Amino acid sequence: MARLWLLLSACAGFTGVALGAFAAHGLKRRLAADALAVFHTGSQYQLIHALALFGVALLALQAPSRLVNLAGGLFALGILLFSGSLYLLSLSGVRALGMITPFGGLAFLAGWLCLGLAAWHLAER
């Protein structure tokens, strides 16, 4: 699983930087300031969780566990739902997409909880 988390981390990091640059240079004159801020939030959270996936990959190599893998899956799901919905919302203007965003946020929170529980169990080894 470590390979999967590392690949997802690299993909999320690459696309997060690319989308951030696209927003800063390509969308700056095309989107309203509030829509650009929403897009930027999506990119920011994607990059933060790309690093979290990198940490999951390293932990999966050193101390593999179900909780570590669950954290990775939840971080990936969070990127898809949270960041993805913000990108689509800002580009399309369809406000209903904002209903998806909290589910991504919950996935992020659950991922961090799983990572914390995995760390707690490490101390017991």
Automatic annotation (TrEMBL):
Membrane spanning stretches: 44-61, 68-88, 100-123
Main location: membrane
Subcellular location: Membrane
Keyword Ligase appears in the UniProt entry: no
Membrane topology of this protein: Multi-pass membrane protein
InterPro entries membership: DUF423
Keyword vocabulary terms for this entry: Membrane, Transmembrane, Transmembrane helix
PANTHER family: TRANSMEMBRANE PROTEIN 256
UniProt family annotation: Belongs to the UPF0382 family.
Name of this chain's protein: DUF423 domain-containing protein
Organism name: Pseudomonas zhanjiangensis
